[in-house]
Specification:
Shape: globular
Strand order of the largest sheet: 1-2-3-10-5-8
Low-confidence stretches: none
Number of helices: 1
Order of helices and strands: EEHEEEEEEEEE
Radius of gyration: 18 Å
Number of strands: 11
Helix content: under 10%
């Protein structure tokens, strides 16, 4: 039987060469620049990820994010609990209600705001194709007043 570390792919990389999987225990939470609470799991800071972020994103009851875009990455979220409104579009003209079991996809450079009008925290599993904890956020404060 051939060990994986001895198999070479066409780009001269050995399979499994000197690497192992990582387990990340629940870590320090932080408030993001746009206003949601993050608990990073897989990131550049926690495991040295080069292209992926995976973590828990929480929006407390009555909270909302600031109007913002992510310049260099796509975002995908899966809502575990709570309910949120997601407003998108260049004038924040599109409103979607997201409930537990729903997925959210936000392309890069799409203006958006999330609002939790409920009485419980909205908790999502979130991933993006940028590994850093403080990702490429650009705030648009002039758009915040558009969302009641």
């Amino acid at each position: 039987m051939t060990a994986l570390s001895h198999i070479t792919r066409s780009e001269d990389k050995r399979v499994g060469a000197a690497q192992k999987a990582s387990v990340v225990r629940a870590g320090a939470k932080y408030r993001s620049e746009q206003g949601s609470d993050y608990e990073p799991g897989v990131s550049a800071e926690t495991v040295g990820s080069t292209t992926l972020f995976l973590g828990i994103v929480t929006l407390p009851p009555g909270a909302r994010t600031r109007a913002h875009v992510h310049e260099r990455h796509e975002t995908a979220l899966y809502l575990l609990s709570g309910e949120i409104e997601v407003w998108t579009g260049d004038q924040l003209q599109y409103r979607e209600v997201v409930r537990p079991g729903d997925y959210i996809y936000i392309p890069e450079n799409v203006l958006h705001v999330a609002v939790n009008r409920g009485e419980q925290s909205a908790v999502c599993v979130g991933t993006r194709n940028e590994p850093t904890a403080q990702e490429s956020v650009v705030l648009y404060p002039e758009m915040d007043a558009r969302i009641p």
